[in-house]
Design brief:
Length: about 230
């Protein structure tokens, strides 16, 4: 019994000495213990770009002033598009949309079969957007803005001196990004341009003709997003 008490006291003494040794080591000069620093936050960039394949689907409407009941139609096209977005805040952004495409202009109604001519179209569009940020990786947005369309490289077909005037228009936009990580994602975007331009030319017999080209195209794009 006495041996047991001696062993117990020895164990208590050893434990006490062990604790004291640890405490003493913590107080040794030159040894400091600081809490682990939190990781630095990732810097937020306001810039984003997208590259899309864009389908341009005009609304077939227009007129020849000198021919009552006449109408115009335009070919559809697919073209690459680049847009550049700047975020003022995580929700508010401005987007510049750049792309060019080719269209054939033909007559309908009483002038059906008339091949007015071909033209290249450059419609840079600037929109102000609101981005929704409460859906995780899915980031929808809406936008509205202004468009200025340049018509260039016009070629004459059945109309001599066929020409379309550059024109302002309004734009509405809805779309969404699905982000795989902080940089890369997929994008789907739909825009409606309200675009009408004046045109003129002359028939084979020299008769001067003019009218409106009411294109009002849908721009339907899909592509990749990169956030800097």
């Amino acid at each position: 019994m006495r041996g047991t008490k001696i062993l117990g006291r020895a164990a208590l003494a050893a434990a006490f000495l062990s604790i004291a040794g640890v405490a003493g080591a913590a107080d040794l000069p030159g040894q400091t213990y600081e809490p682990m620093a939190a990781p630095a936050p990732v810097a937020w960039s306001p810039w984003q770009i997208r590259l899309r394949a864009l389908a341009v689907v005009p609304h077939d409407s227009g007129s020849v002033d000198q021919i009552p009941g006449s109408d115009l139609s335009y070919s559809n096209s697919v073209t690459p598009e680049l847009d550049i977005t700047y975020f003022f805040t995580p929700n508010i952004a401005a987007e510049l949309i750049l792309g060019t495409t080719y269209a054939e202009v033909e007559g309908d109604g009483p002038i059906s079969g008339l091949d007015a001519g071909d033209t290249w179209i450059l419609p840079p569009t600037l929109t102000l957007q609101y981005h929704f940020t409460n859906f995780g990786a899915f980031k929808p947005y809406v936008g509205a803005g202004v468009n200025y369309t340049f018509f260039y490289g016009t070629e004459n077909e059945d109309l001599a001196a066929f020409d379309i005037d550059n024109s302002f228009g309004l734009a509405l936009q809805v779309g969404a990004d699905y982000m795989f990580n902080e940089h890369w994602g997929l994008n789907l975007d739909v825009k409606k341009l309200f675009l009408s331009a004046d045109w003129d030319g002359s028939l084979a017999d020299g008769t001067y003709v003019s009218g409106d080209a009411d294109l009002d195209p849908w721009l339907i794009g899909a592509g990749i997003t990169y956030k800097f």
